[in-house]
Design brief:
The protein has helices at 43-56, 77-93, 109-118, 135-142, 167-185, 204-212, 232-238, 247-259, 271-285, and strands at residues 8-10, 13-15, 22-28, 60-64, 102-105, 122-125, 146-149, 192-195, 225-226, 265-268. It is of the alpha/beta class. The chain has one domain: Dihydropteroate synthase-like (TIM Barrel, Alpha-Beta Barrel), CATH 3.20.20.20. It is globular. The two termini are 20 Å apart.
């Protein structure tokens, strides 16, 4: 049985799931992220790029200070805070971003707490709450939406952890367990967003299989966030080693995700391009009621 998730209001924006595809724009303030490391890791370049993302049609800005690319090493807590908190504060002081929801991409509860207090609205955890035992209770106390992503291991080890008994079944079981833990800690069910974690502890073939079967996660009753943008499986398909040159492969993956009828948010780098792609795909695959 499929359950339509309840709408969610973030700042003054209403997210009505199923109505259209919402765009979460990636803003990495890191020197080593896989496709844009070092591009926006000063306060000035980060704010300038954020304005470009909003003008391109982003619905949410996702700010991250810890690279999660395969093989990435963990930075210190102090370093992650120093990277992201000034950017969140600066954006919140700028009238351009007054009503724009901001997400903090972190697996550390102290970073989540500091970012929300600085003006962020959403916590996006690539470990799905497994990386920090305090994460669920901190998010519950903050009362904000939580993106619960499936992954295994750490960025350093995850590509060695791709052996699944049943890919979709194993991810569904992970989600079920983590949703129960999150709600037991006090996170409201309607504030949980699921991300199946394309590229995280998944092989090239598994990423394709995951996109084909996104609709199977609808039974969990949560909005679904999908992040295919510039990922290595696209590079494999189009023989393109440069992530920034994978824009049209990303467009195809976004269309495929929308065509399943189950994708609510796409996490992407190339906002202006994907904005147009999604508007056309939505018109085709989301019949107006």
């Amino acid at each position: 049985m499929n359950h339509q998730p309840l709408p969610l209001t973030i700042r003054d924006r209403l997210f009505t799931w199923g109505q259209r595809t919402y765009l979460m724009a990636v803003l990495n303030v890191t020197p080593d992220s896989f496709s844009d490391g070092g591009d926006f890791n000063t306060l000035e370049t980060a704010v300038t790029h954020a304005k470009t993302l909003i003008n391109g049609g982003a619905d949410i800005l996702d700010i991250g200070g810890q690279s999660t690319r395969p093989g990435a090493l963990e930075v210190s807590l102090a370093e992650e805070l120093n990277r992201v908190i000034p950017v969140v504060r600066s954006l919140r002081k700028d009238p351009t971003f007054a009503t724009c929801p901001i997400s903090i991409d972190t697996s550390r509860s102290p970073v989540a707490k500091a970012a929300i207090e600085a003006g962020a609205d959403i916590v996006n955890d690539v470990t799905g709450g497994t990386g920090d035992p305090e994460m669920f209770s901190v998010v519950a106390e903050l009362g904000v939406p939580f993106v619960l992503m499936h992954s295994r291991g750490t960025p350093e080890t995850m590509q060695k952890l791709t052996d699944y008994q049943d890919l979709i079944g194993d991810i569904t079981e992970f989600f079920t367990v983590q949703i129960q833990k999150a709600t037991a800690a006090g996170i409201q069910p309607h504030q949980i967003i699921l991300d199946p974690g394309i590229g995280f502890a998944k092989t090239y073939e598994q990423n394709l299989d995951l996109i084909r079967n996104l609709s199977q996660f609808k039974t969990l009753g949560c909005p679904l966030l999908v992040g295919p943008s510039r990922k290595s499986f696209i590079g494999h398909l189009v023989n393109q080693p440069d992530p920034k040159q994978r824009v049209w492969g990303t467009a195809a993956a976004c269309c495929a995700a929308i065509a399943t009828g189950s994708t609510d948010i796409l996490r992407i780098h190339d906002v202006a391009e994907m904005h147009d792609v999604c508007r056309v795909a939505d018109a085709i695959y989301r019949p107006k009621t």
